[in-house]
Every structure is written in C-alpha cells, then in structure tokens.
Amino acid sequence: MYEIQELAENKLIILYILNRINMPITDEQLSKIILDNKLMNYFYLKQYVDELVESGFVEIEEEKYFITEKGIEILKLFFTRIPFETRQKIDEYILLNKEKIKQESQYIATYYKKAENQYIANCKVVENGIVLIELNINVVNSEQAKLICDNWKQKSQDVYAYIIKALTGQ
C-alpha cells in the first residue's frame, strides 16, 4: 500500500513542479529540481516521467517537458496528497531559481559530428517560443564545438547585438 501511495505522490510532485514552473523545462532542469530537493531518486524520476508522458499528463516538445490540461486537472484533484512541506520546498526553490531556469531555457547550444573533422555547433536564443537568432557553426574538432557551446550562454547577447549592428549599420 505504501509503495502505491509513494508512486502517486511522486508523480504528483512532478506534475506540481511542471505546473508551478509554468514553462517548458528540459530533462536536466527537472532532474536538478528533484535531486537538489531530495524528492526522489533519479531512476524513479525517469520511470515516473515516462509514465506521465505515456498517460498524457505531460508532453515533450523540442526536448522540453510541460504539463498538459489533463495533468493540470489531475493535479487540481489530488495536489493535497503532496505534503505541505514538500510543496513549500518546491515553491521556495522555484522562486529562487526560476529566472536562472528561464535563462537556461533561452540560450541553447548543442553540437554534433557531421563528418570526419567536421562538427556543427548549433547555438540559438529562444524567447517566448520565438527563435531570435540561430547559428550553425562548422568547426574541425569536438573541442572547438564544445567551447563554442560552453561560451554561448555568456556571449550570445553580445553576438546578437554585434550582428544586428553590423547588418543594420546602427
């Protein structure tokens, strides 16, 4: 009986986080929230998220999770099954970290190997679902591609401003 209650509570916790954060978040961001607050272990988290997606309570779009209307309805019915202290802990964490999480979601940088000695660093800035800038940079090794991706979050605003200035003459 305890395992069933814990399973339901953990799934509700995931729905609660996705509802309270009020924006799509990556697997890494969701995992960080859960693990930083010691809400459940990583392997259970993965299992529960998969089950929530399969059930239609959570959806994935562009590798980000968000709660569905169906998930919100279930959460409204059963959110009191999440202990008050747990809800409070989640609310405080989100209040302190939401801006950082939002910023992480806006500056996206990944790379992949296209061919021998050819890697593509894909860097973009997304705001409110709109791609403001996207660059695909072809480099000769994974170290360069990784460095570009690592620096994108700090340098993307400067790059964007430079390109706008260079192309508009303003």
Automatic annotation (TrEMBL):
Source taxon at top rank: Bacteria
Coiled-coil residues: none
InterPro entries assigned to the protein according to its UniProt record, in alphabetical order: DUF4364, WH-like_DNA-bd_sf, WH_DNA-bd_sf
A Pfam short name: DUF4364
Protein's name in the database: DUF4364 domain-containing protein
